[in-house]
Amino acid sequence: MTGSSSINGKTLAVKIRDLHKSFGTLEVLKGIDLEVTKGEVICILGASGSGKSTLLRCINQLTVQDRGEIHVGGDPIGFEKSSDGEHKKADAKTLAEQRSRIGFVFQQFNLWPHRTVIGNILEALKIVKKLSHVNAEKIATERLEDVDLLDWKDEYPDTLSGGQQQRVAIARMLAMEPDVMLFDEPTSALDPERVGEVIDVMKALAAKGHTMILATHELNFAKDTADRAIFIDEGVIVEQAPAKEFFASPKSERLQSFLERMSN
Question: Sign (positive/negative) of CA torsion 138, 139, 144, 147?
Fold first, then answer.
C-alpha cells in the first residue's frame, strides 16, 4: 500500500482506492476511488442508503472496509508498517492515534449527557491528547468562543437546542486539531430554524482552509461553499465536478433526477 502525497502540486489529504464494504449480502460500497487535497471542501450527495455515511465511517475506521486502501496524510488508516516493511493491521494504540487526526461530526451530536458543555470538550483533550486540565481548559474555552457558546460552558447538553448541541460537537472536534474533518448529515436532526447557525459555523471553517468532507442534503451550502461536489448512487461515484459546474450542468440522468427531486 502506498499513498501519494500530492496531486497537481497540491498536498493530498485523503486518498481512497477501490473501497468496498458489504453488510451481509448488501454491498454498500462498490469500489470507491477518491482523492481530496489539503484545504479542499468536498460535499457528497446521494439518496439515503447510497453509501455516503458508510464511506465517511470507513475513512476514520468506525466501519472497517472489506477491501481497499484509505490514506490520510500519506498514512494507511487502519494499518501500520511491520519490521519487514510490509503493512499489517494497526494495533489499538496506533489506530487511536490515526483516528485522533480525523474529526467526525455525527447527525445526532453524540455528546455525553452527564458532562457539561465544556466538560465534553475537556474529556477528549485530557484522555486522548493527555493535556493538563489547565491547557485543556484554555483550548476548550477558545473553541467554544469560535462557535459562540462560551456563555453556555457550564450547562448540560439537554438544556441546549439541537443547533447548540451540534455546535458543541463541532467545537469538540476542533479542539482535537484534526487534519481532516468529516461531517455526516450534520443538520439533518435539526429543526429548520436551527440549521442556519450550524451552516454558518461550517462556512467559517471552510473559509479558514480546513479540509472538510461532508455528506449533506444542504444543496445551497454545497453550491456556495464546496470546492467539489460528488454524487454517490448505489455505492458508486456516478459524477463529480467543481461545485458550480456540478449543479449548473449535471451530466448523468441519475444526478439530474436527484437534483430535481431535491429542489422540489
Answer: positive
